[in-house]
Amino acid sequence: MTDAPKKENKSSVVRLYEEIKEMAISYSFKPGERVNEVELAKNLGASRTPLREALNRLVAEGFLTFVQGRGFFCRELKSREIYELYQMRTIIEVAAVRLACEQAADSELQDIQNFLDDRTSNFTEGTSNKELVAHDEEFHHMIMALTRNSEMSRLLGNVYDRIKFFRWIDMDSQHAKSQLEHADILKALIARDAESAAKLMENHIRRRLDQITEATKEGYSRIYMHS
Amino acid sequence: MTDAPKKENKSSVVRLYEEIKEMAISYSFKPGERVNEVELAKNLGASRTPLREALNRLVAEGFLTFVQGRGFFCRELKSREIYELYQMRTIIEVAAVRLACEQAADSELQDIQNFLDDRTSNFTEGTSNKELVAHDEEFHHMIMALTRNSEMSRLLGNVYDRIKFFRWIDMDSQHAKSQLEHADILKALIARDAESAAKLMENHIRRRLDQITEATKEGYSRIYMHS
DNA sequence: ACAGTACAAATTGTATACAATTCAGGTTTC
DNA sequence: GAAACCTGAATTGTATACAATTTGTACTGT
Lengths: 227, 227
What we know:
Two copies of one chain form a homodimer.
Chain A: H1 12-25, E1 34-35, H2 37-44, H3 48-60, E2 64-67, E3 71-74, H4 79-103, H5 106-122, H6 129-145, H7 150-170, H8 175-190, H9 194-218
Antiparallel strand pairs in A: 1-3, 2-3
Chain A binds a DNA duplex through residues 11-13, 34, 36-38, 46-50, 52, 69-71.
């Protein structure tokens, strides 16, 4: 029996939170744009009360900003913020891969190996960027799970969501190299070589950051980028 | 003149958020206890609408939990969660002190030196635990600020708030040793010795965690502690 | 032209009403 | 005696009403 037939009793707030979060991740709101509450409430089929509760959560998570008396706004596209988030991501994941090296069971590493093998064979030309990013993310989340630190996992999820838009743009010609790097990181983990696993992870992420800054400078999303 | 007569520009939501956050930090709500919305709203002089908006923010920040149809609850006192937060704190701060070593201006390090000197001379027997913790926190925030990473600063603030209750309990006989360790960390920073600064910071925090786990095991707050 | 102003429209801020759900208790049933 | 089951009270979930504030715009005087 699967999860399907269960009575769907998600509250409005949770549903709205998830839907609006998706919109924020993909920049359905334009950067800096004010969120019109009555309009959004009507579009999502709810009233302003649960809507504002959801918006307040998203403010706390860094997807929106809030100005007293003026309302909720989409976060800006600041390259500084992207940089900071990538720096944070690096720090967390490098530490995570070190912890994983000590704590992971052999079988867990084997699971990740299987996951990678499975995907490389199933890859086709038609795979979308979003799917590639999702796959990439899953690898990193699997490593993170080995730390047994749910707070850090949650944090990493938040960071990933906030930079996802840029990863979608950037994933074009990177997934092949990226997959090789994943394999290398895992190899170091299986060899229980924390030092080189950490180094590989650091370079892996730094390279992505370099690409992003390059891409934004070259105008991939110049329509949006402000500073 | 005190706070009363000035036109209070802050919205209800922001005021409620701050007040309830203080209550959550200090466990004015008992662990696991449900937050009664009408009662709390009455006590804080507002209606349920802005109250719930504030509560939703605090859920997103990890101070409260939310269960569909049952309402908002004070977070539990799980030693596992404390451990995870301390581990996260260690990772962030060790990385921060490394970054600070590269990036800080000499004058900024001198400022921190002055801050420490100032406080050691101003310390008296009557200083409360809360003040000592606040002073301790400020040192760490000053180091963090040297990374120029506002996202990491914000995160560290959240982590500190969530473990503050335990630091209050635990600060009793530690501040003297703690201050010496702060001086050592700063010395390593001034010498631009990232490796030893990182090592000192790691030990500094690990020792606190050891004390906390010890303290909780010995029953400092057995009234509260669940698992 | 342009800064300032007045005023209407749009929008946010908050209280309240009521529906939906959960909870507490006593009662019945086995 | 314990589990299942009612039923009214308490509590949460959400829509709506209206007050407070902000915004857009036409108008005014210089």
